[in-house]
Amino acid sequence: MEKTVSESRIEQVYQIRPEHLNGAGRLFGGKLMEWIDELAALVGIRHSQHNVITASVDNLRFIRGAYQSDLIVLIGRITYVGNTSMEVRVDTYIESFEGIRKPINRAYLTLVAVDKAGNPVKVPGLIVQTESERAEWEAGIRRCSMRRQRKEEGF
Ligand SMILES: CC(C)(COP(=O)(O)OP(=O)(O)OC[C@H]1O[C@@H](n2cnc3c(N)ncnc32)[C@H](O)[C@@H]1OP(=O)(O)O)[C@@H](O)C(=O)NCCC(=O)NCCS
Question: What's the pLDDT tens digit per position in 85-101?
């Protein structure tokens, strides 16, 4: 059965603690990558109703740093689905205590749904309802074909 984007959308908030920092006193990039990967997987699990594995992460762009006590908001949503794979976009923001959000990262991940034996399984289709969801879907088709080409060329 097909599902909408909003059915699997997830928003998660963290407050940066000392153990999240790197030697330069900023949010450690690897910690942010963990949060992004985890959130994308949860979106994929909700959409597919199966466990998922991360096939690729791309367009991981660090726009600005974040510091202790900052609030970090991650929003994950499905942008495109193939046969067994799902593309999830994760946007990360710093949110001020007044509620103003500034983007610090955007990433696209490809998750593959797997059965109990670890074999890829078909995922539900995606119902795109808004103009921006439609635009993401169209762009997702192009990104998917670029990934296929990169895989074939081995980089
Ligand atoms: C992801 C994986 C299952 C793909 O295996 P494969 O033999 O290429 O399988 P398939 O050709 O059947 O591809 C399955 C889907 O993955 C997609 N895929 C495969 N490699 C990909 C890549 N590098 N980037 C994006 N999507 C990819 C395919 O396009 C296909 O999507 P579709 O069914 O929607 O068309 C396999 O490479 C794997 O197990 N990788 C390790 C994943 C992992 O352990 N992640 C780390 C921690 S969670």
Answer: 999 999 999 999 999 99
